[in-house]
Every structure is written in structure tokens, then in C-alpha cells.
Amino acid sequence: xxxxxxxxxxxxxxxxxxxxxxxxxxxxxxxxxxxxxxxxxxxxxxxxxxxxxxxxxxxxxxxxxxxxxxxxxxxxxxxxxxxxxxxxxxxxxxxxxxxxxxxxxxxxxxxxxxxxxxxxxxxxxxxxxxxxxxxxxxxxxxxxxxxxxxxxxxxxxxxxxxxxxxxxxxxxxxxxxxxxxxxxxxxxxxxxxxxxxxxxxxxxxxxxxxxxxxxxxxxxxxxxxxxxxxxxxxxxxxxxxxxxxxxxxxxxxxxxxxxxxxxxxxxxxxxxxxxxx
Amino acid sequence: xxxxxxxxxxxxxxxxxxxxxxxxxxxxxxxxxxxxxxxxxxxxxxxxxxxxxxxxxxxxxxxxxxxxxxxxxxxxxxxxxxxxxxxxxxxxxxxxxxxxxxxxxxxxxxxxxxxxxxxxxxxxxxxxxxxxxxxxxxxxxxxxxxxxxxxxxxxxxxxxxxxxxxxxxxxxxxxxxxxxxxxxxxxxxxxxxxxxxxxxxxxxxxxxxxxxxxxxxxxxxxxxxxxxxxxxxxxxxxxxxxxxxxxxxxxxxxxxxxxxxxx
Lengths: 277, 263
Hints:
heterodimer; A: alpha/beta; 35% helix; B: alpha/beta; Rossmann fold; 6-stranded mixed sheet; 4-stranded antiparallel sheet; 10 helices; 26% strand; globular
């Protein structure tokens, strides 16, 4: 299997008043057309890993890597024009909260059309047609009505579907989903996930699913990377989660309250400095 | 045994939208009562109208036997009932130090020994006095929620209203905050009314719970019933399925771009 994305020794550093802070410290993995989960708590560097691949790291930060290549293109040395043409077209990213990540003064339909026309030479009518098709594909019941709505006029679940539609309309090969359902209700979460799952499978995309919820990620992905303090501490097949060896992974797995399990107090995650070494 | 929080046939109407429709709950002293439901089911509105933050259109509410009228609450009410909100980023004043935010309820209620109580409250939520003169932006989400809990506890209330206290937090931090809440409930013999959309959290924290949908209570059950699967309503069953995480359906995937509509 040739890798769609190869990451070797990825590092992201932020200069601060008290010196350099390394948010990501030497992350390496390869991704094919599969579903990969990246799990860790806040500050573990999981989101910054996703953002560095997408090229959305803040300008003051320094990103270095031995290899960061997408389909043979070395991303870090690629000219900005090439990266712009990849971003949104071949690599797309779904963000956490549709309330903040959709443009509030542009209708949902126009935002989807904008993505499409940025990357493909299509007529306005055709773009509109494809945007409506895409809205239907994310199981929005009345695409024509939603096309004209503004982000504040739709619910969180609907907004997140619109976001998925926007990201998938240009037919990306790699999708990075950064906590795509954390801002949603439990029942809506499942709907959004099953839509995402179906589209990823149908279109044969590679998926990187970033989340703090180990259970959710393991039920959704094929393979899981567990990050702690900017490093990968464990990599395992999602089906093999119960046999996780690292105490940090076990801690993440056990700290969720489960219906029917009478555990008072809940086991709390230990954080040992030697794991960060 | 009479209920410490008693809500009878409460309705809340915003313009022409009925947020709560004849809802009744009874919460007894020392128990932890859960309200579950999806967004828009009215669970937060119920909590907010007890606290006087949503206008009741009908029905009665009683706290320790005293009837509450409209949205007016007196100081004695706030000494007995405090609330913790969902988002610790939104519920702390961004330009006031932790010290000042903890001082505020004490000043309003004319407490003399503020110094001692602030230190005690910080200690109780596991923050220590080092956090006292920091600003909210210098704390993590979990630490902020601890400050919000300290602020609610500083008046030594007997009832705590918790509106999704951990849904803005990471799974690992959630466990710490839930343990803290259980600890203070045990130490201070508090009564909790807790709202959450996560059945796992509610069954962990609460003895009894009410499931809400569309502004009504559709089912009342105990956590043991829920854990044992003794559920009457399909809606509750759906929530239960949802809380167990994602399941991939074994249906064959149709090739092609779009399926026209929802199955």
C-alpha cells in the first residue's frame, strides 16, 4: 500500500516570552486510504498535528519535519501557491464548532459554491447544482431551503452537516476532522458520524479523526494513535483497544463514566513526566 | 419526606414557543437528581426557571417549602440555591481576578470573614491559594470550572443547580470535576439537580432522573433501571444507544455520489 500521507519527525514550536514551547515533538506516521484516529487530552498536540498537515499553523510557529509528504508532494517546501491549491481541494479539514467556523455573513449555499469555484472551473449554475447535491448527500432534507440560510439560522447538527458538505464538495483525498462532533448533542453526534462514515467509505478518502474521546474514536477508526505531551505514546488497532499497554491509554479509556459501571470515584488520569520523555 | 425542590405543572413560554409544558419534578433533600434530553428538550430551561432566569408562565415552584413567585428571588434563596453553568469560559468575568469573583457573592450577602472563606473554597475545589490572584485566561478549562464550583459553594448553599457542568471539558478533566462534585456533595450533604445530555454522566452522578423531550418529561426512572435496561420509552432507548458510541451499520454501501434523502 502506497502511503497517501507520510509524516516523519514532525515538530511544531511556538515562541513564547518564556522560551520555545514544543507543542508537537517528533510525530511520525503514515496514512493510506484508511481511518486513523488521533487521541489525547487538551494540550497533547493532536490538533496542532492536524493543522500542520493542513498548513494552518499560526505564522509565528515553526514547523519542521524530516518528511511531510502528501501523495509525493513535500508539503513544507512546496510554494504557497501549490499549497493553496491543495488546501480545500485535495486535503480538507472539518473543524469543531460550526458556530465559529462558518462565515456568519454568507449563506451556507454561497460558502459551498465558493469552495467549489475556488478549485474548479465551473459555471455558477453547475456549482449551485453540485452544492445542492452535496447538501442532499449529507442528508439535509430540504437542500434548496438550507442553501439560502445563514449559519445562525440552523442548528448545530445542521451546521456541521453543511460544513461536511463544504469540505467534501471538491472531492478531497484526505480529510482531517478535528473534533467534528464535540460541540453536538449525543444523538446528533451519531447522525453526523454515520454521514461522515458513509461518505468517507464511498469516496475512498483517507481520514484523520482528532478527538479527546478514545471510545468514540475507537468505534469509528481502524487505527488509533495516542498522543501525550506532543508525542505518540502508543499506536494500536482500534479493535485492540482493550489490550492497550500504555497506562496513559488505559487511563483515557477508563476515565469515562459508563452506564451500569458503579465506580466511585471515577479513576482519574495519571500524568507522569517520564511518559513525556 | 417532603421535597426540597418541588416543581408543579411549570410552563415557560417564549413568545409563541412553549419551552416547558406542564413539567413537574420533586427532588428530595440530599439526593442527586438528573435531567436528560437532547438540545431543545427544555432541561436547561427548567433549571434556569428555578434559579429565576426564565419567566414562568404557569405552575408553582417551591424550595424548602417556600413558594417562588415569578422571577423574583430574595437573598435567602440565593444563599440556599446556587448554580454552575456549562461553559466556564463564558461564566467567569474575563477581567476580574479569581479573588474578586469569589468576593462578589460574599459582598452581596454581607459576609464578614471573606478572607478565610475564599481560601477555604479554593482549597476545597483543589486549587490552592496560588490561583487566587490569577485571571480566568491564565487557567485551563478544568481549573475554571473548579473556580465556578468554588464560587457556587462559597455561600454554603444546600442546593446546587448544575447545567452541563462537564460538557465543555475533556474526557480526562471531566472525571476529575465529577469526582470533585461527588466529594463536595458527600462532605456538605448537598442536593444536586443536574442537567446533562450524556446518560453516562447522569447515571454516574444521580440516583433518579427524568428524561425530557420537547418541553415535557417523558419518563422518570432510577439509574439502576436505566443500567438494567428497564426502559419504557423509545426516546430514552435512543439516548441510551447514542451514549454507547458509534456503531457501524452492516448495510452495503451504495456506490455513487449522493443518496437523495434520509432513509
